[in-house]
Amino acid sequence: MTRRSSSVTIRDVAREAGVSVATVSRYINQNTPVSTNVAERLDVVMSKLRYVPHAAARNLASRKTRVIGLLLNNLHNDFFVPLLNGVEAVVRKKGYNLIVATYHASSRNHMQPPIGPHNTDGLLVFSDGLMDEDLVTLNTSGFPMVLVHRTPPLHLRIPSVTVENIEITKKLVEHLIQVHGKRRILFLRGPIHQEDSVRREAGYRSALQANGIPIDENLILNGDFERDVAYEAMNGFLSRQDRATFDSVFTGDDDAAIGVLKALHENGIRIPEDAAVIGFDDLGFAPFLNPPLTTVRAPTETVGQIATERLFGLLENHPSDEVIILPTEIILRRSCGCQS
Amino acid sequence: MTRRSSSVTIRDVAREAGVSVATVSRYINQNTPVSTNVAERLDVVMSKLRYVPHAAARNLASRKTRVIGLLLNNLHNDFFVPLLNGVEAVVRKKGYNLIVATYHASSRNHMQPPIGPHNTDGLLVFSDGLMDEDLVTLNTSGFPMVLVHRTPPLHLRIPSVTVENIEITKKLVEHLIQVHGKRRILFLRGPIHQEDSVRREAGYRSALQANGIPIDENLILNGDFERDVAYEAMNGFLSRQDRATFDSVFTGDDDAAIGVLKALHENGIRIPEDAAVIGFDDLGFAPFLNPPLTTVRAPTETVGQIATERLFGLLENHPSDEVIILPTEIILRRSCGCQS
DNA sequence: TGAAATAATGTAAACGGTTACAGTAAACGG
DNA sequence: CCGTTTACTGTAACCGTTTACATTATTTCA
User: A176, A182 in Cβ contact below 8 A?
Assistant: First the structure.
């Protein structure tokens, strides 16, 4: 046993089965037919030797990795569970592997994205995980890529899958105004530049404007779509001496809503009597918060699925630059004052 | 431009900088020092050419992938968000990549695990994602591996990180019995063979026994640690004509608790007045369910971190076969009848 | 000052597959 | 019956790195 690595190679299989390595390779990849005689022998030998093709060697020779990458800002949100589910299901069905990586503004200074053409066949880019410049580079090199929860920057024609944010947010905010008579509506932003956040804010502003309510920038906080950040933001707001009055909170998303609920509870503010609260996403726990959360149902798992399928479409040379915007739906529960 | 691939190789860099490929390689990997003169030239050339080393070629030559794998049963649980967070943080810090793959009983018949020695340097194995036989094979071949939420099978010395289940469950069930006077306690199992589930059941049985309460197998249902399955199980139980009486539910975990809460709500059963409900994990939403959920706080993110650090320990030749069991803590809230 | 040690670099053989190209045997068709 | 197709199979180059070993340039020091 002088071989460096103890692993079984295609040559071992070939020798043991009395054929050439090319034949073994062809049988494994089902490229070219192989005589049934040889096929049977290979089956036996391969399982006897427990042969598993070495991924790196394969990748190098074939210039494919059979891996797709999912690039995220972070993983601090229950929102990612349905998204991952949708993505992973498709990836697995295709016999590919999935690399999950985070990459965000602060890491951008010193590092390049951990995944890209050098180790994946294609990328799902969530949100603002990559700056426009990175997108341009990858896109012009023809690297397969689908944007998730973000539309392509100008001049770039990259397929994209996201959900409808503006109109639904506007409608829901108008619900607060028109049905529940709210006028001092706190708005929690998500991460700066995050497109969902930007659009929800646009919907918010447009609703206020359409209803003749002046926009008070003091009512706009940064919640970052994170439980803890939203909690801090809400708490900070509440503890301010000269705090503006408010009668309701658009929390940004369901995860942030949890932090907001916590802060309001701790300050003895009753929901929805003293302040209405609404979320976004309709994560699994939303109906069971206290009180049940009025929110927007977003088809997150479907987003993951469709985006991944489209990425495989690109890999199989079905080019596309379509922007798919999946519909969303308002779910009225108690936290806004309905169903009390 | 006749090169097949448009990608820049190490040879391009070497030529452009007037050095050999070996020097370039050494500079990139910081193996052997390089004259400052050459280093500067390489910096310039590499960024000019936008050179990125080809992962597969690297992996093949170095017999390392710089990838670690996380093998899960599925991704149907918010529990995985903190776990993934812990894992991903360490992986990123080490400059590695993370492949997330699911592999479960039903896929086992026809396929082999999607990740292993052929495409990763080490594996985090969650729960029953692999059968004992797979573990034996991998372990005897010396492949680095850490078990998560599962202890090694007999005779196998694989490091493992999990949380304390038995004693804490026993304590919490005894809390139901002794503080709240419950005696008909429904128990929802997780996936069959899943170790957390098995141990929680052991704790449950032991608590009943210690308190002289006979075990009624009719009170044990399969919740699978999944919201929807738990909902169906609970609903099925409630709709049975001859259903056994019950006064409380140990739901298995917080995610299943959501399904149980839903079923109870829909059937007009008040919590905790008509039935106490307790979960496990203390996921972020637990304090804000209706009612706030009594549960067990499990340090899931820490589990992910420690397990990953230990895996890197193995990669760096610090062998270990220690089983680490992190402590858990009871969190009393309203759903069990406390703090009413 | 020159031999020996040290530092930096180059050469070329792996790593374990895929695949273009060539070859051979059997089947086919006129 | 023989040229042509068809169906497999083999040979060997190549994928883009790493790294053992060899080589050269520079210090060190007796």
Answer: yes
Q: Which of residues 126-165 of B touch strand C (CB under 7 A)?
A: none
DSSP 3-state assignment of B215? coil
Q: How far is it, in rounded angstroms, from Cα B28 to Cα B52?
A: 10
- Reported as a pLDDT band with limits 50, 70 and 90, residue B106 is low
Would you say A225 and A191 are in contact if contact means Cβ atoms under 8 Å apart?
yes
Classify B72 as helix, strand or coil: strand
Which chain A residues have a beta carbon less than 8 Å from that of B258? 284-285, 288
The chain A residue lying nearest B95, using CA atoms, is A114
Per-residue pLDDT tens for B63-104? Answer: 999 999 999 988 989 999 999 999 999 999 999 999 999 987
Interatomic CA distance for residues A296 and A288, integer angstroms: 15
CA–CA dist A253, A243 (Å, integer): 23
CB-based contacts of B214, cutoff 8 Å, min separation 6: B208
Find all residues with CB under 8 Å of A292, minimum gap 6, and list them: A286, A333, A334, A335, A339, B290
A299 beta carbon to strand C: under 7 Å: no
Interface of B with A in 226-265 (CB under 8 A): 227, 255, 258, 261-262, 265
Residue A5 DSSP label: S
Per-residue pLDDT reduced to its tens digit, A45-61: 999 999 999 999 999 99
Beta-carbon contacts of A83 under 8 Å, excluding residues fewer than 6 positions away, are A126, A148, A300, A301, A303, A304
Res. B288 pLDDT band, cuts 50 70 90? confident
Which nt has its C1' nearest the CA of B59?
A: D17
Asked if A112 lies within 8 A of B75 by C-beta distance, the reply is no
d(CA B48, CA A105): 23
What distance in Å separates the CA atoms of residue A115 and residue A122, rounded to the nearest whole number?
9
B111 CA, D12 C1': Å apart:
33
8 Å CB contact between B107 and B94: no
User: Do A185 and A248 contact (CB within 8 A), yes or no?
Assistant: yes
Nearest to A56 by CA among B62, B14, B280, B32: B62
Cα–Cα dist B47/B141, whole Å: 41
In the block, residue with structure tokens 């390089």:
B34
Dihedral, B240, B253, B84, B98 alpha carbons, nearest 10? -50
**Angle made by CA atoms B66, B68, B74, in degrees to the nearest 5:** 150
Entry pTM: 0.92
Q: Note the Cα A187 to chain centre separation in Å.
A: 22
Span A161-209, pLDDT tens digits: 999 999 999 999 999 999 999 999 999 999 988 999 999 999 999 999 9
Q: According to the model, what pLDDT value does residue A1 have?
A: 29
* A residues 85-144 closer than 8 Å to B (CB): 85, 88, 92, 95, 97-102, 112, 114-119, 137, 141
- Test B112 with A52 for CB contact under 8 angstroms: yes
A110 pLDDT band, cuts 50/70/90, is low
